[in-house]
Amino acid sequence: MKTVYSPLHHRRTATSELDGGVLIAPHERPSRAETILQRVRDQALGEIVAPVNFDLAPILRVHTLEYVSFLEHCWEEWAAAGKPGEAIPQFWPARGMRQRAPKDIDGRLGYYALGADTSITEGTWEAARASVDVALTAQELVAGGERAAFALCRPPGHHAAADLFGGYCFFNNAAIAAQAFLDQGAKRVAILDVDFHHGNGTQSIFYHRNDVLTISIHGDPDLVFPHFLGFEDEIGEGDGAGYNLNIVYPPGTPFSEWQQGLETACERVADFRPDALVVPLGVDTFEGDPISFFRLKSENYLAMGERLGRLGLPTLFTMEGGYDVDAIGVNVANVLKGFDL
Ligand code: Q9C
Ligand code: ZN
């Protein structure tokens, strides 16, 4: 299958992630995309193509204009305010407080953030826009008749909600691509998120809708990020009731257990009879991942891809997490290889 890649991801080079009370070098770093690209090349998985530039319209189908404008101008406002470091939120509209975006940049940062793990930097906007272009270009390949395509998105997207950034995400690439399928005439789209973390942004964007089935298999949010969403009793609301499925596993989960969740998920996807499948693909389920707690092995990603391929659906993969940079290329390429077997 074809891979869509843009070197503009290099515009996001944050130096700080707040973790354990100190600023560390971010887990979500440029070498991630380069390692994956190199492996896709080495394994001759298919042509690597550059993205087309899209305007804001498909982004605004999913994100609010106020949020998009905030992201566009955040860095210049922060720098103009004379702040010495990267833009990191510190204050939130917590319980009992007003849910409104104030004028001050510290207030706006907190209003639009779901955590303090993701700093905004010079170039973040350009990289995040390019990441959406990558997803939408791959979406067009699939809509145009390709069996599948791999959007090598960086930064990732599945934690970003309509008006929230965090968890290393700014625009929800998978949700924007799913909406693009619908806007081009698809009746139903399924999103099956296999990243270690709950796809909270994707869930919340489609929570009240029955034209997008959202499924996520992830670490128990009682124990890990995103902490406040992703529990199994979240099944959708209103028209969306029954169209969200969360499958949760504990620390130490091996592929033999995880695979049962994938089977349940795939059966639900097949029952939904979607016109297209979007797979937010994170490989932070790997046993060596530094911030996660599942125990998948590299060979398991072949089986994962093979099962997804057996659905027989037009499929778009969007790159999400995975932080063992040495293994990320092998693991991602194994999913794509398994899919095409
Ligand atoms: N100490 C994705 O995989 N920060 N995002 C965790 C660890 C949140 C992960 C901090 C992890 C977000 C796309
Ligand atoms: Zn993740």
Automatic annotation (TrEMBL):
Pfam families, A to Z: Hist_deacetyl
Histone deacetylase domain boundaries: 28-337
Keywords annotated in UniProt: Hydrolase, Metal-binding, Zinc
UniProt superkingdom: Bacteria
Cofactor: Zn(2+)
Alphabetized Gene3D superfamilies for the sequence: Histone deacetylase domain (3.40.800.20)
CDD domains: HDAC_classII_APAH
Keyword Cell inner membrane assigned: no
PANTHER family xref list: HISTONE DEACETYLASE 8, HISTONE DEACETYLASE HDAC1-RELATED
Family: Belongs to the histone deacetylase family.
Name of the molecule in the record: Acetylpolyamine amidohydrolase
